[in-house]
Input
Amino acid sequence: MAVGRVLAIARKALGQLAHDRRTVAFVLVVPLVLILVFGYGFGGQPNHIATVVVNEDHGPLGAAFLAALPGGILDLSTASSNASAWSAVNSGNDWAAIVIGPNFTEMARAGVVSLTLYLDGTSPTIAQAVESAVESALESVFSSHGNGSAVHVASDYVYGSSTTPFIDTIAPGIMALAILFITTVLSIVVLVRERSAGLLERLFASPLRPSEFVAGHALSLTVVALAQVAVLFTAALAIFHATFTGNLLFAYGVLVLFGVGNLGLGMLLSAAARSEFQAIQFIPLLLIPQILFAGALFPIEAIPVAFRPISDILPLTYAARAVQDILLRGWGPSGVAIDLLALGIYAALMLSGAILLVRRQA
Amino acid sequence: MRTAGGDASGAISVHDLVKRFGDILALDRVSLEVAAGEVLGLLGPNGAGKTTLIRILLGLTRPTSGEARLLGEPVGARNVRPRVGYMPQDLAVYTDLTVDENVELFCRLQGVHGDRLRAREREILELVQLSTRRRSLVSELSGGMRRRVSLAAALVADPDLLLLDEPTVGVDPELRSEFWEFFHRLTTSGKTVVLTTHYLEEANRADRVVFLNAGRVLASGAPAEVKSRTGTGNLEDAFLRLVRSGAGSGV
Output
């Protein structure tokens, strides 16, 4: 490989990009949009949940419990009776009703804590948020009143905390997904375009080797990926105040390695396609399974067990997991060695495949 | 070694070259010698085998049988590539890059960098009369200008051998004439130019012409020689007469 020719190709590819302002915007704005959409759109915990409360308790503990409900999560209003609380949920005015019976304090002092929740289960996320708010209020009231409840779970967070913001947990996945999206889209048309214009033939009539052609494009895409990751990190830190415990530069490197592998895959598919239109049809095929099965946005544990082996063959699985482990758990190279190995193999296989196929296209 | 030299070692030597694409015989035992310092016109109708021959010489296609050597090396040898300039029949320049960027890319791929690249670029862009458009995107240029960018990309690294597939298509007559003068100027420094054209009259300006038809060499020689041999006044008539008589081909 001659460095001069690799650089000439990289320069060419970056020049093409520089003259195409829309693509520049696409490359820089898409990751920003992705992180904004996911950060705001499904980044927050449910809060300000309309909840109606009936407190018929003759003693003080019912009121103490209500005061202990975590602020901001539930928007409380009061109802006069059990029946009206139920109908508030039934009519859709409220997501939940909390009914505290007349003997709440008395029974609690006798060791039985009991109240009634009416929940609208059409949104399990909201129902769970109400339940967990109620449980945490109960726990705080009955431990401070010296009437420790019968059940106590000692939760000690090894990583993160019960208040880890959702954006922290999802940002690594979004970053890996954004890199996958852009590198695939950019590389999948490269070969088709050069081939149809007769350029590939002309390039390979020169001393240019296929490996230099692929390396030059990988280099230019690395520059693009560096800019994209910078946008992603800046947005996560500045807009969402994400708190990453790990080494940003290391995560940066992993994302770039992932991008280079995607470039190889894009070029391979590009070589298999006869036209730009055909090439573009590969994009959903590449993206959708990875969005769903790679654990970038939804935990792999949420996938039916029978489908989980799929996630083992998706490169995004390893990229998302490595970036999560680095940024959230603060792990170093030894902690993510398997993921790095998988990404390295992916990049090596895809790039060598692309090199083998490129020359045949000329 | 930068010059091919005008010695006995030919720039191109082709012996009994055969190329089949399935049932189609694209080249049928073609033999050809091109001396260094020659301007050779490769003539023939569409499908005659001109482009296939050039692609084999460039190492882009393997011949079915036969032998071909370029600047003394077997075709496809890596060390001759920096010494060969190629202008394909397709436009084959980046329309989303500027004139400069295209010319520089192909110059760098041929191994010419730095000050020498700048100097060559200036010279070549003057020749193709694009000096004032060097910062324009190729997509903003007319069809003829685009062809000139493509020619500039083939010439810029100062190759010893030029393989030009229809270099004068879409170029106006005045500039076409200048191109021919330039080709001859190149040969005085030992360079070799092989070009295809379907403007048979301009081929009169070649040192030698080779008529190809249906994959076979019908005739070759200096234009005047070919005309007198066929008893015709121009190359077009000469070609038609050769095709009808089935000369050299047994058709």
